[in-house]
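Dear Dr. V.,

Thank you for agreeing to look over these. As mentioned in my earlier message, I'm a first-year student in the group and I'm still getting used to reading structure tokens, so any feedback on how I've presented them would be very welcome. I ran two proteins. I've put each sequence directly above its structure. The first is here:
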Amino acid sequence: QVQLVESGGGLVQAGGSLRLSCAASGSIFSINAMGWYRQAPGKQRELVARITDAGTTNYLDSVKGRFTISRDNAKNTVYLQMNSLKPEDTAVYYCNVVGHYGNGRMYTYWGQGTQVTVSS
């Protein structure tokens, strides 16, 4: 089992910033990719940003230039720095990890979600 603990959500005015953190612990063995997804009311969950163990990143088009994902491999922690926030960024943000156990079996886990609300 892998546990994910998220922090950093909250309420911010448009144009403001927030930083999300997600720390993984447990039977990690090797994490291949860590990422952040979000889900707004009435909408499907979408990938916001993702970073691989090699440091390769990809972003949702609407957050490019505003959000930055980073990763501390020693701490098994992923961060999402969100700047110039817009009301349309309001959603529950979920951390996701993809990796494999020592026996080679792949896994994926989700965090409990953290609310980000951007007021206009």
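The second protein is here, in the same arrangement:
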Amino acid sequence: QVQLVESGGGLVQPGGSLRLSCAASGSIFSIYAMGWYRQAPGKQRELVASITSGGSTKYAGSLKGRFTISRDNAKNTVYLQMNSLKPEDTAVYYCHADVSSRSYRGDYWGQGTQVTVSS
């Protein structure tokens, strides 16, 4: 079993910053891509950013420049630095990881952390 535990969400004013963290634990042999998705009320879940084990990154086009994804492979942790936040960034943010144990490789998700951007 693999668990992803997110932290760092909350309420922030427009223009503010937040840093999300997601730590993977459990029966981990290797972690491939890690990433962040978000889902706003009434909308589909969408990719925010992803990062490979080698550090290659991908961003949703509209977010590049404001959001930065990074990871610490030694800690099995992925981060999302969010700057210049806007009300439209309000959503539940989910961590994702492509993880292999000794016998299984699959996609794992965190429980989600709420980010609310409001004055």
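From my reading of the second output: The mean pLDDT is 96. The radius of gyration is 14 Å. Does that match how you would interpret it?

Kind regards,
E.
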